[in-house]
Write a structure and sequence with these properties.
CATH topology of the largest domain: Cytochrome p450-Terp, domain 2
CATH class of the largest domain: Mainly Alpha
Number of helices: 11
Oligomer: single chain
Number of domains: 3
Helix content: 40-55%
Distance between the termini: 65 Å
Number of strands: 3
Shape: globular
Mean pLDDT: 94
Low-confidence stretches: none
Largest sheet: 3 strands, antiparallel
Radius of gyration: 22 Å
CATH architecture of the largest domain: Orthogonal Bundle
Strand content: under 5%
């Protein structure tokens, strides 16, 4: 609630929520007007961006959120959630353990891909052809950041991530309808084509690359792309943690007990590896 200057009330300032006894307003909207009238993806948009999306924008955002919910215990965050449960943690602890693993290497590629896509877009706006800009920005990324191109390549899904064609097709439809521009879909495909040519084999655009196209098309900042991935993957984390709770296993580690790590130090135990 708006009040005069105060050392107490001005300790935190926000445009997100206002409250008084019996009243809650989110971005200026009474909570009772939002409940039952907007979807969860619309609420995410409203809370992070201060306005409500239209139906078409909502649908595209929801598609990205649905696509990234889970990738099984092979994903470190999912495995961490399940192991945490076997060590006695509750759902909140298991979820926190898993979400905290969604950083630059596992979970952060979407944010990085959005940044790379914008590099390419800026290069095109400066007069470069798309294919040339994609190649230049791949080189720049590998020189300034890492040899790994975020959003491309997959250890399991070869030659194609099954989620990507569907997501790109939805973006194409949205571009034809005027919901989005479509430029980031062209950029993503140009990067993939460049990588394919350089590697001499298909380099799939993965879920991070495909959802990054959607988030960039919808105008989300790169860091929010990571946050949205965390929200999406939290659904899978919750499901796996809950399932593990109902399996009654204790202290379950990464490999089965019969399999041990490889010891490389001095004086190895004979027959241990």
């Amino acid at each position: 609630m708006s009040v005069s200057k105060s050392d107490v009330s001005d300790w935190w300032t926000t445009e997100i929520i206002d409250m008084a006894p019996g009243q809650i307003r989110l971005r200026g909207n009474p909570i009772e007007d939002l409940i039952g009238n907007i979807s969860f993806p619309q609420m995410i948009w409203l809370m992070t961006r201060g306005e409500l999306p239209n139906k078409e924008q909502t649908n595209l955002l929801e598609c990205a959120l649905v696509a990234a919910v889970d990738h099984g215990p092979q994903a470190p965050s999912i495995a961490a959630a399940r192991m945490a449960v076997t060590c006695g943690l509750g759902l909140n602890g298991a979820m926190a353990s898993a979400v905290n693993m969604l950083d630059d290497v596992h979970g952060g590629a979407g944010e990085q891909a959005v940044e790379l896509y914008h590099w390419v877009k800026d290069a095109v706006q400066k007069g470069n052809e798309l294919e040339e800009a994609a190649a230049q920005m791949i080189d720049r990324w590998q020189n300034e950041r890492t040899k790994f191109i975020p959003g491309f390549g997959h250890r399991l899904h070869k030659p194609e991530d099954p989620r990507t064609p569907r997501l790109l097709g939805l973006i194409d439809e949205a571009a034809q309808a005027g919901t989005v521009d479509g430029c980031f879909a062209h950029i993503g495909r140009a990067i993939q084509q460049t990588l394919n040519a350089r590697k001499g084999k298909p380099v799939p655009m993965n879920i991070d690359g495909a959802t990054a196209v959607i988030y960039a098309e919808l105008g989300f900042a790169g860091p929010l792309a990571r946050g949205l991935f965390c929200l999406s993957r939290s659904v899978g984390i919750l499901a796996h943690a809950w399932e593990q709770m109902n399996q009654s296993e204790r202290n379950k580690g990464p490999p089965p007990p019969a399999y041990r790590w490889t010891y490389l130090g001095p004086n190895p135990i004979e027959g241990s590896n």
